[in-house]
Every structure is written in structure tokens, then in C-alpha cells.
Known about the structure:
The complex is a heterodimer of chains A (356) and B (180).
Chain A: E1 3-5, E2 12-14, E3 19-21, E4 24-26, H1 28-40, E5 48-49, E6 69-71, E7 74-76, H2 78-85, H3 91-110, H4 112-129, H5 133-146, H6 151-163, H7 167-175, H8 188-215, H9 220-233, H10 240-254, H11 258-271, H12 275-292, H13 295-311, H14 316-335, H15 341-348
Chain B: H1 6-12, H2 14-30, E1 35-39, E2 49-52, H3 58-89, H4 95-109, H5 115-130, H6 134-151, H7 157-178
Antiparallel strand pairs in B: 1-2
Amino acid sequence: MNQVVCQECSRNLxxxxxxxxxxxxxxxxxxxxxxxxAKAGGQPAQVTxxxxxxxxxxxKTYIGEGGGVVAGPVxxxxxxxxxxxxxxxPQWLKLSLIGLLxxxxxxxxxxxxxxxxxxxxxxxxxxxxxxxxxxxxxxxREALKIAPNSDxxxxxxxxTALLIGDVETAAKALMGHEGGRFENADKPEFxxxxxxxxxANSALxxxxxxxxxxxxxxxxxxxxxxxxxxAALYPQLLHVDIVVDEYEEGVAxxxxxxxxxxxxxxxxxxxxPTGGTxxxxxxxxxxxxxxxxxxxxxxxxxxxxxxAKELSQGNKESLDRLAEFEERNHYRLESREIINKTEYDxxxxxxxxxxx
Amino acid sequence: MFFIPGQVISALTFPGVIVxxxxxxxxxxxxxxxxxxxxxxxxxNPAGYVIHENSENFTAQFFVSMGPFVVNTVLCxxxxxxxxxxxxxxxxxxxxAYFFYWLGLSIGMHAFPSTTDLSHLWKAAPALxxxxxxxxxxxxxxxxxxxxxxxxxxxxxDLGYGIAVGVLGPxxxxxxxxxx
Lengths: 356, 180
């Protein structure tokens, strides 16, 4: 350890304990006394810790009085002076930096599918916030392909699908999320979807009951009431207005109100031109021909039946239903007698094939 | 609130310490300040340090003090962005994503400048701010907030900052990109 001598009291002391005042090396007590004297005399006094300029401040190598290089308040040996002027980055740090950058590139490459899914998710979310549910759904579906277990993705998709009446897509999104399980059932997002989901299922249940009721003659009004109830409960259900109209058409048929029957069938055909709505219109037109004898009704009825067949191509179930209907419709047009299916089955099919 | 020794936290998040000190060194070299010693990581307090000469130049002071804060924050956002979607939004089980998130959070946690660095800025800034020095004006509120956050380390303010940056940063980025 370097020793120095206090220039006031001549005491030997360690260089570490020494101070410097006006280029004089002092011990602690002499430095304090000198400062007090200076202050009393109104003189400035700046005491600093003694720096032994004969040794390098970094590596403690002896450099002699006036040797080495002055670097700010300290004196350094030449190698240390060069080092502090241009401290090198260690090799491992450079390699780590390269590794970090490579990792980053790899991370970004590895995550490209996630970025696309995330982009789709956020785009879908923005569109949902703007109320553009139809536009949002394709984005959300794409996001779910990558991340079916995403709470946000599944709930947003289900909500969007339910709001546009697409219960099937909503069911797929919810069931695809860990078998329909969600961690936090208290989240407002979950409760909102749960509420919609319950309404949709309740409405579908009512429609199922309505369909069963309608199979039995004399229950047309009750069936239509159930259909109206379902539509009120879940108005977003796809084509629910047409479904309700079809039940109302059944009521109009029973009441022999063929004008209402025809106007509803015409409306539904315009709204949703399918084999089903075409055959319904064909039936209504046949009724109108039967009661009025106006040939144009008959011609249009036959045209709509042909249209129904055309639109049902490839759908065996629809074609079978149409074949059954065609026979009854032909009878209606030829005989101009309006009878329901049950009566037709009883008369010409020996009571079989009674399902509507 | 639970207590975990700082050395354990530093060891668990060592990449952040190394990045912080490397950024310090980078800015010291950029402004040609003498560097007397560097420790990138050690099991002690502080976990890393760069001993450098003081500068009269406020710009140098600002960047040497705040540089690591900016560098660590930016790297935290980038690494967390690479891992944010699978970890937070998409709930995809991807170990690599969790590794990147740990890396990002570790770096983000060590963004805060030391109170010593901040105190230098705090002393020099008011006089320069009065003269209209933009960096000095910016550094005053920034230093004040960072000093408070630094003291908040005992209640995990550094981890909170890392998570906030690592979650909010990517959300902002993805929301902005989703518009295009």
C-alpha cells in the first residue's frame, strides 16, 4: 500500500486516506483544519481525494512522477490510457449480438403465421366494432384456423356469427375452443356470447317444435305462433323471416286465403330464390288457378315447379320432396280441387307417405 | 407482494443486464467518453456497471444515461412483438414463443437508468431547459418519472414496465398494421 506524508503534520498515512488542497497533501484532520481556516478567511477551499500520480489509476502499475498519460483527474499507464480511450467490445458480446439478431430474424420468420392470424384477428375485431359483421367473419375464421384456442378469437367469431344468424359457425368456433370450455365465464365478452348462444338455441328449439306441430293437421296456427316467438327471440337467425312466412303460408292455406298465400310465396321467392321457395310459389299459384281458373296461374305454377327442380339439382332430399309435391300439384291443376297432403295420401297413397 | 432477492432476479433476467450495459458502453464510445471499467454481468449489486468519465456535454450525458432505457425498451418491444400473438392473443403452445417473451421481458425489465445517471441529468437539465435546450426539456419530466419508477422497483415497477411495454407495444403495432 502506498504511503504518503502529510505536509502539515508530517504524519505517515495511506494514500487512500490522504487529501489534496492547493497541491498540498494532507491528512484528514489537517485538511479539515485547512478548510476551516480558508472559510474563516473568506477564501475558497476545494479539497479533493489524493490521487497518487506515480501509479496508474487503473492497473496500479508504477509510472513514476510525471509519467503515464493524464486522463481527466487521474493518471494512467499507456496501455490503460489506450484502453479507456477506446474500450473494446468483448468478442463474446459481439457474438451474442449477432446471435440476438439472428434469433430476432428467426423469431419473426417463425412467427409469420401468427402475424397473419393476429392481423386477421385485429382486422376482424375492428370490423366487428364498426358493426360490419359479414365482412368480419372471414377474417375471424382465418384467425381461428391458426389459433382455435384463442379466447378472443373464438368468442369474437361466435359473437359475429351469431349476430348474422350463422349458428353453425358459432358452434364450430365455441366447440373448437378446448371442447367448449373457457377459463373465465365472468368475462363480459363471454357473457355476451353466452347470452346470444342461449337465445339462438332456444329459438332453434322452438322452430323444431313448430316443425313437429306443423306435421299434424290443425296445428298450423300454433306452429306459426312458435315460429314468430323464435323470430322475436333471435331475429338474427338466417332467413328466419322466410321461415316465419312459410308457417304463415300454412295458416293462409288452411284458411283458404290464397291471395295472402300467394303474396307471401312471391315475397319469399324474391328474397331467397331456392328450390323450396320456388315449389312453395308453385303450390300457391296452383291454388289460385284452382279457385279462379285463370290459365296464367297454371302456366306460372308449372314454370316455378320446373325452376324448383333446376335449383334442387344435386340435392337428393330436395328432389325426393319435389317428386312427391309434383304429383299432388299435378292433381290440383288437373282437378282444380285443393286438398291437403294428408287427404291426398289418404285418397291416393293408402294413407302412407304422410309426412309433410 | 413477495420478496425475491435482487441477485436472483438479475440472474433470471441476465440478458437485460448485459444489453443495458452494452448500450451504456455504446453511447460512451459514441460520444468518445473515457471508459474506466465495464462489468456486463455479475452476481452482486449492481449486477452490471460502466464506469466512465463525466461529460460537460449535456447531449452526451443525456444519451449515455437514457440510451440504455431507449435500447432496452425498443428491443423489449421487438422481441415481445415476435412472441406476443402466440402467447397472449392466440393461446398457441409454442415453447419458442415463450423463450422470446422471456428474452423480451428480461430486456424490458432492465430498461430503467440508475438513480446516479438520472441525478446527473437532473442537476444539469434545469439550467439548460431555461435556455430552451430540447433534450433538457424532455429529460426533466422523463427523469422525474424514471426516478419514481426506480424507487418503485421494490414493488416490481421494473417488471411492470417490462410487461406493459411487452404487451401494449405489440398491441399498438398490430392494431396499426391491421388497418392496412
